[in-house]
Amino acid sequence: MYVGIDVGTSVVKAAAFDSGGRQLAVESRPVELSLHGGFVEQDMAEVYDAVVDVLGKLTGRVPEPVELAGLTGQGDGVWLVDAEGRPVRSALSWMDGRAHELLDQWLADGTFETVFRRTGGAMFPGSPGPLLAWLDRYDPSSLDAAATAVYCKDMVFQRLTGAARATTDVSDASMPFLDPRTRTYDNRVVELLGLTRRRRLLPPIGDPIATGEARGEGLPSGTRVSNGPYDLPACALGAGVTAPGDGLLIVGTCLAALVATTELDLTGEPAGLYISTDRPGHRLRAMPAMVGTAALDWVLSTTGVTHAEVDDLLAAIPPGANGVRVLPYFAPSGERAPFVEPHLRAELSGVSLETTRADLIRATCEGIGYAARHCLEAAGLTGSLAVCGGGTRSPAWMRLLADVLGRPLRVVEGEVGARGAVLAAAERYGVSLDAGVWTEPTAIVEPDPERASYYAKGYEEHVARLDVAREAAGRQLRGTGCS
């Protein structure tokens, strides 16, 4: 039995697989997010307890011995721990927006672009650079008390294995301090963000990913465990996206577009990031948008529609949603890919007293689809496209996505991040698993040519409306007085 652990933003999951990649069992437990005034935090103790709980339940259900376990989890944010891996304060989530004023300043004075040109990472309010700089300015005692500023999975790994010090891997380190050419921290970037005196907090990078043995919490004592990659590249592995040009769209809380590449292009509009992988020279060009299923969830809760009703409502309304259009940028911290605009907000247009709930829902799904197309184009997709995430549970939405994107979708269901974590662990430990078998799609969804042609024109209109909205958001930034 092989176990993958995926420490998500709102749910912690553990999945068991046999040697052929068949998913045997899954255990999950929700974890809370604390939201107040743009601050989004998590209790690290609750997160770790959830990991131990789901692992204990999983290994109790499937009696086969655990060959090895791979760990993945949410990226970005700041997880401050002491020398023993204990929390210094609540974790700052990647969804946190408190550092937007710092980001506004860096956008205006050129720091943002300079960092991108050096690292290939476009910072956003919830990335470690802005959050650490905010803490240094407004909560320096937390940084003084910390031994390391790690990422979610790194905290869990240290606690599970009793490692002497928290470490991370090249994928999590990619934003925003890693030089993708040398695979080491760029001290100039640390200096530009005003964090030189906090340089000691950056965790050592395990390259290749770190390994250890479980000490008996959740997993049997002595179980081999590997740390990483984080959830986006883990999903790419779990979906079989490794050949240059092939892509993955994760339809989850955020909408993440990833394209495998061996190139490094630091020109063009600063957006997204290059995620280094465990294989030197191989990267993922990532456009992890803030928009995603959270946008649809908001519309569903506002209209009183359940997830079970979505497929029927999508089928009842023609393409174009009877003239209703949605720019689905609902996140309070704006958007981060394929452009960075902290002040961008959602817009609904074409709404009248005749507009139905089904119109709003279809228009939202279409808007998310257009955002996905924008991200995939910016990421450089040229090959096949796999899709995973919670959105794949809706067949009607997958058909709509295939039409909006104008290409076939390789749908990969199940715990794809956990699957990728196992494949990464197997490669690290030299365990032979057939990745092709492990990553076979569960379905292929073909686009309808007529609807795809309609949506190609709709996408052009979407981009035009977005340009206007971005200009308005930019005027708001310029109005803050930054120069």
From TrEMBL:
Q: Which UniProt keywords apply?
A: Kinase, Transferase
* EC number(s) given by UniProt: 2.7.1.-
GO molecular-function terms, A-Z: kinase activity
Q: Which parts of the sequence belong to the Carbohydrate kinase FGGY N-terminal domain?
A: 1-206
SUPFAM superfamilies associated with the record: Actin-like ATPase domain
Q: Which domain of life is it from?
A: Bacteria
Enzyme's top EC category? transferase
The segment(s) forming the Carbohydrate kinase FGGY C-terminal domain are 271-426
Cytoplasm: is it a keyword of this entry? no
> Is Transferase tagged as a keyword?
yes
What family is it from? Belongs to the FGGY kinase family.
PANTHER family linked: L-XYLULOSE_3-KETO-L-GULONATE KINASE, SUGAR KINASE
Q: What is this protein called?
A: FGGY-family carbohydrate kinase
